[in-house]
């Protein structure tokens, strides 16, 4: 029989996790004709078959409550030049959507200029301590060839050599045709 061990101190855990690079997203939903969204850096791919992603929300989140009611959400993967959007959607008591460019994509709020977009149906909600982990079944996706915004050590940035990486010539040709 295994005995439960003591947990690491919350601040020690928080400081450790600060060093883990995380993608920065704005997760959105639409409820009664009103858009809502929040900055989320706890986003990851989970499965290819079926295509599933995960996002985690604090249990007290208003956006979480709306996603659970609507059973759909969008994930806007932010680009390196969109740190201002990450800060805006992390700020409480402001009209976030009045200050930015956005449009509806199949009934979900999509931020203009985001590096990527996923349209998700809620597949499952899983208990996770003080958070709820949402598993989203991806039903739509698109991306732009932009450096992603990442968060680590409590600051925003991007891959240090993203723009310098070698890419096959065909990628540049395809990107030119898409413009």
From TrEMBL:
Signal sequence residues: none
EC class: oxidoreductase
Transit peptide listed as a keyword: no
UniProt KW keywords: Oxidoreductase
Superkingdom of the organism of origin: Bacteria
One annotated GO molecular function: oxidoreductase activity
Enzyme Commission numbers on file: 1.5.1.-
Cited PANTHER family: FLAVIN REDUCTASE, FLAVIN-DEPENDENT MONOOXYGENASE, REDUCTASE SUBUNIT HSAB
Family according to the record: Belongs to the non-flavoprotein flavin reductase family.
Name of the molecule in the record: Flavin reductase family protein
Annotated organism of origin: Streptomyces cinereospinus
Taxonomic lineage of the native organism: Bacteria, Bacillati, Actinomycetota, Actinomycetes, Kitasatosporales
């Amino acid at each position: 029989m295994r005995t439960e061990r003591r947990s690491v101190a919350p601040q020690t855990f928080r400081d450790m996790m600060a060093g883990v690079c995380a993608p920065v997203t704005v997760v959105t939903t639409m409820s009664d004709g009103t858009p809502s969204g929040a900055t989320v850096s706890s986003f990851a791919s989970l499965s290819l078959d079926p295509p599933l992603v995960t996002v985690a929300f604090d249990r007290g989140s208003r956006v979480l409550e709306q996603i659970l009611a609507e059973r759909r959400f969008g994930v806007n993967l932010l680009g390196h030049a969109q740190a201002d959007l990450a800060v805006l959607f992390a700020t409480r008591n402001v009209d976030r959507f009045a200050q930015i460019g956005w449009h509806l994509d199949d009934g979900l709020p999509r931020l203009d200029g985001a590096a990527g977009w996923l349209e998700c149906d809620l597949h499952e909600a899983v208990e996770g301590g003080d958070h709820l982990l949402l598993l989203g079944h991806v039903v739509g996706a698109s991306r732009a060839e932009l450096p992603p915004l990442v968060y680590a050590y409590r600051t925003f940035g991007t891959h240090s050599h993203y723009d310098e990486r070698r890419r096959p010539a065909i990628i540049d040709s395809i990107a030119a045709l898409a413009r």
